[in-house]
Amino acid sequence: MATTAESTVSAKEATAAFFVSFKEKTQDVLDEFARIDSLPQAEGLALVNDLIRSVAELDKTTTSAAIFLPLYDQRQYSQQLKDLSAQLKEKRDALAPRAKFSFKGRNAARTASSKTAARPEASTTSTDAAAGPAKAGPPVVPPNAVSFYGLQGQYIASPPSDASEAGAVRDVYLISLADCVVNLADWQMSVGAVHIRDLTRCVVLVSPVSGSILLDSCIDCVLILACRQYRMHQSHNTRIHLYVGSKPIIEDCDGLEFNDYPVFTGSLGRLETSGLSALGNHFSEVEDFNWLKQHQSPNWRVGTPDNNTALQIVELLREGRWVEAKTAAQLPLVKPTSL
User: Fold this and answer.
1) Residues 28 and 151 in one domain
2) Judgement on whether residues 183 and 36 belong to the same structural domain of the protein
3) Which of 96, 151, 204, 283 could anchor a disulfide with 242, C-beta 3.0 to 4.6 Å?
4) How much is the average pLDDT of 77-86?
């Protein structure tokens, strides 16, 4: 029972608690920073390095809190930590022993010059770099993650070849997909979290995961998801069939429809093993960070109790009939006039 209570703490309460903790920790760093000038140089330098590590840890904590922090708060915290880190590094540079000046004779200078001349490729590299930055490639993801990037009109269902490794837990990234159908329902590997960004007219089915699902910039999509925490940014005109163990959070979104998660073969067992069934489903308790008034936000609504369409999509996907599944999803969606 205690676990359920902890998991259903509202995002606003979590945000308020984080604010208090962040303020205390940054103040501790500032208090210690004020002592540096009164210490011997070596001790002051050691303290600065300790404080730099503390700020780095606080930065990691802030990144982890992105699941419930509003975007504005994230930016403010990030800027404060950036400024504090710059201040500490400036102090470290001032305290660090400076290298002694040494005069190189002409022979040494000629030797260095000849070595440089023997490496013309170094000059070529510098010229290339000066010509301008290279075009941005695929997004950087953790080395152990599974990612699908830059696809259009594809059916994505096959897990990685090593997905059955015992104890393997992977994060999944779905980035820059258009007109795709994604079916991750039958993967046997353990998924830690799912990151979804820049999806257009896609259908996504993900079996229950024990961690978070973070979404950004989903347009005209149908999403069938189950997770412990759900957060969505800058998404529009999307239908979500959701099982979530805490209140879903949306920000800078509109035209969203939230529906209950469909029960299909194997889903109940996955909900149990992932620990989600004990938390209950809070899909209809959406918190809109852009709507602070007491009455209903115009940016989302609860759909009808009928889950036949979602079940039909699931059954078609699990049979590999992905074109028919996309047809059943009726994409692009027509924005309901009531939203």
Assistant:
1) no
2) no
3) 283
4) 88
